Amino acid sequence: MFQTFGDGADPSTGAQRLGRLRAELARIGVDGFIVPRADEYQGEYVPPSAERLAWLTGFTGSAGLAVVLADEAAVFVDGRYTTQVRRQVDTEAFSPVAIAETKPSVWLQERLTSGMKIGFDPRLHTRSEVQRFEAACRKADAELIALDANPLDAVWDDRPEPPLAEVVLYPEHLAGRSASDKIRALQGVLRDKGAAAAVLTATDSVAWLFNIRGSDIPHTPVTLANALVFADGRPALFVDSRKLTNEVRDALETIADVADPSTLQTRLADLGSAGATVLVDPDQTPEVYVRSVEAAGGTVLENQDPVVPQKAVKTVAEIGGSRAAHQRDGVALVRFLHWLDRQETGFSEIEAVKALETFRSETGALKEISFDTISGAGEHGAIVHYRVTERTDRRIETGELFLIDSGGQYLDGTTDVTRTVPFGAPSDEMKVRFTQVLKGHIQIAMARFPDGTSGAQLDALARIALWRTGHDFDHGTGHGVGAYLSVHEGPQRISKLGHAALKPGMIVSNEPGYYRPDHYGIRIENLVLVTPAAPIPGGEREMLGFETLTLAPIDRRLILPRLLAPAEIAWLDCYHLRVQGALAGSLDPQERAWLIEATRPIVG
């Protein structure tokens, strides 16, 4: 099993650990400390050795931050985790705060007094984050202090060792471009921007650029490594040599200098001493590296990680690989949904996770899951990023909805799909909400839009049906997806904050939802590929659209056809016909019969 079901953190320890951290802060002479859910690479997932926020507070979500003062502490989370944080954290020790309502810097500023010193670890915060906290401290005549050592690490007695997983080369026929070609293109970008070098700290950027993969962190096939790419000359890859076989080292040394990670700050300081301009992504690069350049006299050019826009537009090989991965994954999904349909109510959330992973493993191609499966029965489905544990595991009962959001990592592609399934007779309310969510999903799938359109401009299409009855969902409609890389990548996303233009070759999720706290959750998710759209008769502009990649039936038992427009019914029938045609030949007779029934046309 790639997924485990331990809690990973115990909320009952929060007060005791908080007390130990406060004692350490008093010892080193600071009045507060900021604890992000981040490591030196600023990725979504971190290794166990970097799970500082979970160790301190009990909160295990993939995004969050704590601020600890001498007499008060708070944990800040976004809309995905407002329910989860209250279940995991000792609220007597830590106050849960919705980040959409109160920014951490604002919360801190309101509690600062003149002369206070707030510490932070400059390896774990980006330039943008630091600037926000610095502004808050200045307004209160307080001081934000970069600490040489992390005080939380000093009291974390049983902290795990950092990972040392082996680096592997990613085949060029799957990448579609050689690492040398990618490096040359990146060097051209740096010259155009007037930068002597760029520091890359995002592990998926490093993996993509050098055509390497790893397994240092759960579910994302990357290695913990940094890189310096120079406008002229060989790049430098900073990676622990213990992760490299002779074969991999020899291959990498044909295109780059391989160096120890401990030397990166020295190399940046050398660039600074030479008066060089170094490009850094202020939303990605840890503050410690930015200060290394500035302190030595160099110039920092703040710009988006230059790998990001190149990585987002998939090559022909990556697109072909994604289609193949989704076909394979679709067979596993149908086999799972068929299995699910034969279960009596009473099966558990963990049993469902194990079954789905087994079906994916039986493809013979599964390398990992792309994230911890969200397996939510009843009220757990309303927790957007619910992670089932042995403590929270529950069985589904008659009349409930079951939401399962999962994905696979295959060598040729990354998948992410959500389906919602009823057990017993769903209520009329459930059917109405499901159909409203489906309408939003279909509107995104059918969208036609001109070049330059952003996800923010499309996001409302997924919500209008819910808005009309006074409902909504508190997460983006879609996120970018990598090619055997991170299941969440930018810059593309369908969201109120998704301002990057959607371009052909980008992959993004389409996943509107609805969540009634303490009752049920609904989400329908497919991955879609941005493509040129067929010409529209009488149209004046060329348009883009989406090709749906995910292949899995959408549960017809929850659909109210009277709420669907004819074009929406036509889309669903065509999609189901495509699913049936693509997958039926790979199923056994019972599974095939089930699929044919599950994908028959809507009668309406």
UniProtKB/TrEMBL annotation:
Keyword Flavoprotein found: no
Enzyme class: hydrolase
Gene Ontology CC annotation, any one: cytoplasm
Record EC number: 3.4.11.9
Spans through the membrane: none
Keywords associated with the record: Aminopeptidase, Hydrolase, Metal-binding, Protease
GO molecular function: metal ion binding; metalloaminopeptidase activity
Pfam families membership: Creatinase_N, Creatinase_N_2, Peptidase_M24, Peptidase_M24_C
Domain Peptidase M24 C-terminal: 542-602
Residue stretches making up the Creatinase N-terminal domain: 17-147
Location of the Peptidase M24 domain: 323-531
Gene3D superfamilies per UniProt: Creatinase/methionine aminopeptidase superfamily, Creatinase/prolidase N-terminal domain
Family statement drawn from the similarity comment of this UniProt entry: Belongs to the peptidase M24B family.
UniProt-recorded name of the protein: Xaa-Pro aminopeptidase
Organism of provenance: Amorphus orientalis
